[in-house]
Design brief:
Elements: H1 3-24, H2 38-49, E1 55-59, H3 65-69, H4 73-79, E2 87-92, E3 105-108, E4 122-128, H5 137-147, E5 148-159, H6 164-169, H7 177-184, H8 203-209, E6 215-217, E7 220-222, H9 233-245, E8 253-260
Parallel strand pairs: 1-2, 1-4, 2-3, 4-5
Antiparallel strand pairs: 5-8, 6-8, 7-8
Helix pairs in contact: 2-4
């Protein structure tokens, strides 16, 4: 199959998936998002903490995929911090961060190396679906704590290690993630798929690496609309049933809000 044909098939599958979601969540017709939209929930809470004078770091920002690809204006607006704070910095280990459209500064960082920022440089750090990829939580948590000001906020969204999606993902070798995601989420681009580690995405992990004597914890579990249902009505219904059936400890996402003492 040619690249053009492959893109057409993926586009048709994504359209079919959106149609299934719209039939299940009719409120999508009023604004483009569901009443369980995790991005709206997470970033609305982040925005409630923002102040115009803040220095803000987006850790693991990538190319700013949501800003470039999200078709929903509200979500794009929530993702864009530029102009809402005094300084918006995006950093990532990938050179793609240089194309981030919502940053005053874009910085390429080195894996397992100190962050190239001064101590207590930032009032708020936001990290969206990054913690599940972190290989060395001791090093990363220490660096995030170092560059965050006392009283500053660390805000992160990550899959809950004990959620059904994470449990299934951990059974799949990282080398096969792109292939599986192309089937599960046809609109997802290979450039936005990264190896997972699942070493910093449980409440126990967070309490270990961000101890209570240094951080106040306001983290909560959240169940968004299903993101992975292979564009199948049967799988979508199954995922919705599981989300109702499973105990709170198995909710899909963790919304991490930590305040440095």
């Amino acid at each position: 199959m040619s690249a053009a044909s492959d893109r057409q098939v993926q586009g048709e599958a994504a359209t079919h998936g959106q149609t299934l979601l719209t039939r299940t969540f009719p409120e999508i017709g009023a604004g483009g998002f569901t009443s369980r939209d995790g991005t709206v929930e997470f970033l609305t809470r982040v925005h409630s903490l923002l102040r115009p004078q803040m220095q803000v770091l987006e850790f693991g920002a990538g190319r700013g995929a949501g800003l470039q690809d999200d078709a929903v204006p509200l979500r794009r607006g929530l993702r864009n911090l530029q102009g809402k704070v005094a300084r918006a910095v995006a950093c990532d280990v990938d050179e793609a961060v240089r194309a981030h459209p919502g940053a005053d500064e874009a910085v390429v960082i080195q894996p397992d190396a100190p962050l190239p920022f001064a101590d207590a440089d930032f009032d708020l750090i936001v990290s969206d679906f990054v913690f599940e990829h972190i290989q060395d939580p001791a090093q990363v948590s220490a660096e995030l704590g170092r560059v965050l000001k006392p009283g500053g906020w660390l805000c992160a969204r990550t899959p809950n290690r004990y959620g059904p999606v994470s449990l299934v993902t951990r059974l799949i070798d990282n080398s096969r993630h792109s292939r599986v995601l192309r089937w599960a989420q046809p609109e997802r681009k290979d450039i936005d798929v990264f190896p997972t580690a699942f070493r910093l995405n449980s409440l126990r992990d967070l309490r270990r690496w961000f101890p209570a004597e240094r951080f106040e914890h306001f983290t909560y579990r959240y169940e968004p609309e299903p993101a992975y249902f292979f564009n199948s009505r049967a799988v979508l219904r199954l995922m919705l049933f599981l989300s109702w059936l499973l105990p709170p400890v198995m909710k899909t996402n963790l919304f991490v809000f930590l305040r440095k003492r």
